[in-house]
Structure prediction request, 684 residues.
Amino acid sequence: MPDLLLELLTEEIPARMQARAAEDLCRLVGEALKPIAHGTPQGFHGPRRIGLVMQVAARADTAAKEERGPRVNAPEAALAGFLKKHGVEREALTQQGDFWVLVKPGSSMEAASLITGALPDILWNFPWPKSMRWGQSGFLWVRPLQRILCLLDGAVVPFSLARGDDAAHGLASGNVTEGHRVHGPGEIIVTDHVAQLRARHVIVDAAERAALIRDGITQLAAAEGLEIVPDEGLLAEVAGLVEWPVPLLGRIDDAFMDLPAEVMRTSMRVNQRYFALRQPDGPAAARFAVVANIAATDGGAALVAGNERVLRARLSDARFFWDQDRRAGLESFLPKLDGVVFHAKLGTQGQRVARLERLARMLAPMLGADPNTAARAAKLCKADLASGMVGEFPELQGVMGGYYAAGEGAVIAGAIAQHYRPMGPGDAVPSEAVAATVALADKIDQLVGFFDVDEKPTGSGDPFALRRAALGVIRILREGALRLPLRDVLPHHLTYVRMTRATLSAEAMAPAEEIVAELLAFLFDRLRVQLRAEGARADIITAAIGDDDDILRVLARAEALRALVETDAGAALLAACKRAQNILRAEAKKGFAAGAPEASAFATEQEAALHAAILAARDAAAAQLAAEDFSAAMTSLAALRGPLDAFFDGVLVNDPTHRDNRLRLLSALVDAMHQVADLSKIEA
Prediction:
């Protein structure tokens, strides 16, 4: 099977764009070459090149086929239209029975011809996030494109990017690439792409470069009794900046070691792409790792010295902000928030802080936190947005507030530092009561406000990270085993949000009940997503939610319901209950109105026995549900299986004499079951 190799050699591509570009190239080429493709294209990317390799067939063959046209006696206009559509003359048609038929012969195209025809359009229309022109050509690329390597089984697949009068810089495919700018400059006539580039100090595979960086820094750090601070995002970025990674260690001046570790890590990461190191027990180490793109003859000594000088300047800037902010004090930043817009329809950060303070005070008693402490933490939680350090490094919002609030006590400082959590699936949730209260207030205000101004997530975007906020609410409540009556909290806060909105917007507002219903549906949809990711059955989750607004209660109900339906008795009970629901649904269309069954009208022992079992199970389950003992409630309902089976085996429901009373008996059964969950949502 022939192998296709395509490489696009370019001036330095931004690291953040490389992986997506390789994916797009594989997707577009794979679609264009589908008639000859065998397997999926395998992409590669680096600072100066993106490309792919894929197996293809030697040629694309299509079988002959027939297209039936109009009837022989059809109007002449119909025949003319058919001929025009297919671009043929009348002589090309044959008559088969009452119809004209066009026989299209099969075709065969060599793989090279298909590739030659497809690639120029793909490259002219490549979807870079940002592109540039250079010279006189209209051809766009992320950075100037220098060479196109395109080989099929070692032979050049010839094509040019020229279009009409646009020579596109004379770019045409060939069999030449280039190695490392310093260690392997000059042309390489390709016969073994990966091996030849490695010999010229280029590692083609990004995953291999990342592994070399990780392993190299780990070994250097371990030699000094240190370890690397994990940072997969930085690792991927640096792997996109170097073709021949050479990890080196530098030293941080002791004068900066009293800066918060987060400040040093962020300054090194954001400004210089350095890796932070730490002691095995956690404190920051006075060392950093830098990854060079060359193997220097002096072992990297000059490189390290230069980077140490740069880092001193960067950390001096950070020192200035740290000292200046601490002298000012956290509360001094609050007035500045009145001039910072949070959202055009939701006011300033100052107005938002007022909402958070009020909401935290309301939530605190429900979550076991002191209201005054929670309100104070909420008042200060956004103050660091106006600080010099966060202005320089927005990534440190919250973190710096926690440091600057040290004089407020550990509880308030911790709540401020943690109120953005969880930031993602792997991030821990705040566990202390005040911290959890402020974090929930932050996320609930975000959700309520943006839903009220109709900035809800769509299938194509979530610019205000509302899905993450909803998952944050769910995780804090789940992992902290916290009870929160959302049906009370959401409308209460919505009212206050609208009080602040009244001065900002005169636009019509949706009914509050509609907004609250949408918010609850959104939150529980996120809960469903999370539980499904954990392996739970979607139908059981939906059945357990019903109209409940307590996440912990829904989770307990779902677990008890799962345990029931996964037993033989539970599955049989569910099937019988669904049978009853189907009967009632059909009869309702005929005008049947539910009501209480009359015990005196029962004509069989099975009816009386089922009625007695329903009353006993209903009352027992009601008491158990009130105590939130869902497992016991399920056990009580499971006792209905025997009487229900006997009823369906021995009683004719549609007996005209007793039909309505028997339907009411089944309705009582369904009502008893629905106390626990909406069983109609559960799949058989």
Observations:
- The domain at 331-535 is CATH 1.10.3210 (Hypothetical protein af1432).
- The first strand starts at residue 3 and ends at 10.
- The longest helix spans residues 301-328.
